[in-house]
Amino acid sequence: MEHIRDVALAHFAKYGYEGTSLGSIAEEVGIRKPSLYAHFKSKEDLFLKVVVHAFHLESRRIFGYFADCRNAGTESVLRDFFDWLEKEYESSSTAKLVLRMCFFPPPALCDEVMDIVCPFLERLERMLARMLRRTSALGTDAAAADNAALAYITLVDGTAVELLFVGPDKYRRRVHAAWPIFWQGMNCLKEKETR
């Protein structure tokens, strides 16, 4: 069953939900298409199980990145995440599927996918806000930390779209243009807090 899931993940990441056929998954796994139904009720069932698995794996990787960098400065941790995300996207079907689902869930399964995506993003936002408060990047202002975490996720979203649509060069161009402005805003918030 894990082999089926892993093959399906690669297919869904590359071709999307609509472009993936159960026949192609079964063929790569080395079984007949009807045999898939011994493990999954339908294509939708397989897809949703794959998406849950992908978000679980990618969540561990993302939170692992921030845990591994906890002793680095806030600016470098946040800025270097863009480089980490680019490498992750280029090398991992899981990251590709997660990004695709954040922006383009299949219309017929949008509610079910958003029930997976939204808690993931909310958890990431809470972790970032805690990190910003803990590292004193924004002093003790919880509202400022919450807003900065949300703004950071918005910046990641806005740049990550380029990875999906255009590629790494345009992605890096957006990050290069947006990062200094974001960080200047963070410094302004910190200065406001210390006054």
UniProtKB/TrEMBL annotation:
Residues 21-40 bind DNA. Pfam families: TetR_N. Keywords: DNA-binding, Transcription, Transcription regulation. Residues 1-58 form the HTH tetR-type domain. It comes from the Bacteria. The keyword Transport does not apply. This is TetR/AcrR family transcriptional regulator.
